[in-house]
């Protein structure tokens, strides 16, 4: 199962993350082999997944975001048995363990905002052993640039600033300063 995911990612490293039905036909016609389904409800989910599967897409359901289905073990069991996705995405470690026991591919979504969340994420992944992780945000320097344009307010970049390169990247992106808990950075 994991080999199929790796093969598909190797073939096309772009994953379509779908947050509403407006783009479903676009995704079906697109070259993306893998779909992260970030929307749906108990009434529509099975049809959406079947449609994507019938169009040769590997479907991962972000179970934390599905309406009308509890994001607990019972909701997970329903999704795995009735909807039959290739895999699931969740922020919850206990659901990662349960989904692995149910035989689906697991992706743990991690929000890494600072050194504390980084350390927590490492411990969680080591404990629950997902098949893969998705880290967010993926492009913080680009977001800094956009925020500077959209808001026209001073921006301070913080979280995971560990060396001179991080400082320079943040400042180049438009931050006026950086904050860091790393005392080595304080000496730069």
Task: Explain what the structure shows.
The chain is built from 9 helices and 8 strands. Helix 5 runs parallel beside helix 6. The mean pLDDT is 89.
Summarize, please.
45% of the residues lie in helices and 18% in strands. It has 188 residues and is an alpha/beta fold.
Provide the descriptors you would attach to this structure in a database record.
single chain, about 190 residues, alpha/beta, TIM Barrel, 6-stranded parallel β-sheet, two-stranded parallel ribbon, about 20% strand
- How far the N terminus sits from the C terminus, by CA atoms, comes to 47 Å
Structural class: alpha/beta
CATH topology group of the largest domain: TIM Barrel
Largest sheet: 6 strands, parallel
Q: Work out the helicity level.
A: 40-55%
Whole-number total of structural domains: 2
Question: How many individual β-strands?
Answer: 8
Gross geometry: globular
CATH class of the largest domain: Alpha Beta
- What's the CATH architecture name of the largest domain? Alpha-Beta Barrel
Count of individual helical segments: 9
Strand content: 15-25%
| Gyration radius, rounded | 19 Å
Query: Are there runs of 5+ residues with pLDDT below 50, and where?
Result: none
**How would you spell out the order of helices and strands?**
HEHEHEHEHEHEHEHEH
**Strand arrangement across the biggest beta sheet:** 1-2-3-4-5-6
User: pLDDT average, as an integer?
Assistant: 89
CATH superfamily of the largest domain: Aldolase class I
